[in-house]
Amino acid sequence: MSDSSKSVQKSFERGVKFGEKEPKEEVFSDDEPARKRSRNSAYSEFFHDSTVISEIWKKCENSKNMVEEMGLWMKKLEKLHDEDIDSLKKSINDLASNLKQEFAEKLEKMEKVYQEKIDNLSQEKIDENSKSQNADLKKAEEVPEKMTLQFTEMAENLKREFAEKINKIEKLHQEEVSKLKKNYESKISKLQTAHEKKAEEFENFRKEMEISGKLSISHNAGDTLYGKQFMIMSDFARIPPTKSELEFLFKCIFCKSENHKSIDCRVVADHLGRKDCLRAQNRCIKCLEPENPHMCPRALVACSNCVISPDSPICLNYIHLHHPIVCQYNDLSPYREARRQASNRDRIKSGLKPRFT
């Protein structure tokens, strides 16, 4: 607190009157007469009230004056307080700037000291590394001659071993190639002889079929699908089976079961479902071969169940060119018997024998 604020506080304490005594009341003894006591008490009470009122009035005036003085002193104290705050701010800013300068100077000194230490340590490490490198170089100059001799010996040994292994591998390869050639030549010769035998058997079978009349050729087909002749197989005629027919002779082509043949499948009983199953497997409905939907060995063979008469042009329609397992008269649906009966009626009307019994 400044000197001016202290002086203001002292003057304020002097202006306030502390410890003023109130007027004492008169005390009467018991020996005085009662009448005298009553008069004296009445006068004394009146006098006491007037004095009290005057004193209270004086105190009120004094308090008003004191309040006014207090307001003036408060304003002075506020000004002094603001001045003290400004002086404190200035002193704090001065101290902060001085501390910053001192801290910056100390940092510069510390940086210089530590930089000198770092430079000394780095120089020592560099000297140690240079010494160790020089020693290593001396040792390395002595080692290369020994290393070159060892590497040359190792390279020669590896070349010899590699050449020996290559010779062994070439001999084994030649032996295996010669064995494979002999095996394939023998297999090819066997296949050629078997093919010649099968060709002779098929030619003899075709000649027998033509001589017996079981294989007839229709020339009255007109403008057909392929523009060629169609062969109509009789009820007892047979042509050589395809690879898929042999594959599915003991296994169903539709449900892949080995308990029944494809024509006796009840899982896919309807002929339309069987055709859809073959299309899903990308198989031909004529020869059952995969990826052969257009040109196949049975493209000119009509189903004997679906042909009405040999002379009718309807018998050589595309509908009749299918395998017997997808024929509507050979499926296991409940409508098969109705189809067979209708086919028998049509054949009887045309003067032919009924095909289905």
Features:
mainly alpha; single chain; 3 strands; 3-stranded mixed beta sheet; 357 residues; 3 domains; 3% strand; 62% helix
Verbal overview:
- This protein is an all-alpha fold and 357 residues long.
- The chain folds into 3 domains: 1-13 and 35-78; 134-212; 214-349, no CATH class.
- Helix content is 62%, strand content 3%.
- It has helices at residues 3-15, 34-212, 243-247, 271-280, 336-349, and strands spanning 215-218, 230-233, 301-302.
- A 3-stranded mixed β-sheet has the order 1-2-3.
- The longest helix is centred in the middle third of the chain and has 179 residues, at 34-212.
- It starts with a helix and ends in an 8-residue tail after the last helix.
The total domain count is 3
Report the count of strand segments: 3
The strand line-up of the biggest sheet is 1-2-3
Helix content: 55-70%
Order of helices and strands: HHEEHHEH
The dominant shape is elongated
Brief overview, please?
With 357 residues, this protein is mainly alpha-helical. It has helices spanning 3-15, 34-212, 243-247, 271-280, 336-349, and strands at residues 215-218, 230-233, 301-302.
Task: Lay out the secondary structure.
Layout: H1 3-15, H2 34-212, E1 215-218, E2 230-233, H3 243-247, H4 271-280, E3 301-302, H5 336-349
Parallel strand pairs: 2-3
Antiparallel strand pairs: 1-2
Helix pairs in contact: 1-2
